[in-house]
Hints:
66% of the residues lie in helices and 1% in strands. The protein is mostly helical and 297 residues long.
Amino acid sequence: MSTAKYRSIFTASTAQQRKENFDDYWIFTQQHGGELLEEEKDLLKKRAKLEFFQNNPVKLRTPLANTDAFYRNYITMVDDPKSLDRKTLMLTGIYKFARHEWVGIKGAWAVAPSMADSRTLQDKISRVHLAEEFCHVRLFEEMLRTCGLDEVEWLPLSPWKEKVYEFFPKIPAFLLNAPAFVTELMGVTFYSHLHHLFDDVLADEPEVRDRLQALLDEITIDEAAHVGQRRNFIGATGIKISKWLVKPFYTMFFNDIPEIGLLFDLQQMMKDGENFDFNELPTHIVERSWIPSYCKV
Ligand SMILES: [Fe+2]
Ligand SMILES: [Fe+2]
């Protein structure tokens, strides 16, 4: 007999269930992040969490041997990536993933209605969601600082990629929902694999390993909730399309980051995306996150 607590994220749902789940998510997200600070693109409780980490820093026992290698390759890989040590490769890979996130949310924040202009519950949910994503970029920056990298800049992508990200949020909702959901799913998959990578690459740096995992947990809790929330925008046909999009999306996105293929098992990540059901997430993540009612057994 299966003891699984949760069903596949691609499980069918009715329009009525999704309406009720939006109401439930809205209650969750307000208490989870605290007050929205619209001007600062921030949330009160999340800011306090970040400040706790900043006020209680940990440091590498052995500083990075070659920070020049990081700064030379973090925007664009110029060296042969196989020539870099795994710590540097992991850190440039984290930056590149976070940079895509930052570019994507910058474009979306500019076109999405502010909280004051939000007319629907979905608008409000999406505004808070975007503010959470800005918090993630700050948490990623704190990971890099913890490793002694405090001169990281957040730079735009190439002009055509910036255009793609600017165009993305202007796509009508019924077309946008499936790719937006798969993007969140890709985030949770990446963060789960990154958590394991920290165990491996930072085995000789237990304090920094624990801190980076704690910072990552804050992100993963939000992202697991985002997966359920974005899934909740999608009906019967859209959810079939979403499952079909996992492989091409993961392939396209991760192939753009040369570090990923060297550090992660992309085939396994795609399988994890297609099979995602919350059961593999650690209890301490699930307890603080949000799962749609129709994914609960
Ligand atoms: Fe995020
Ligand atoms: Fe997200």
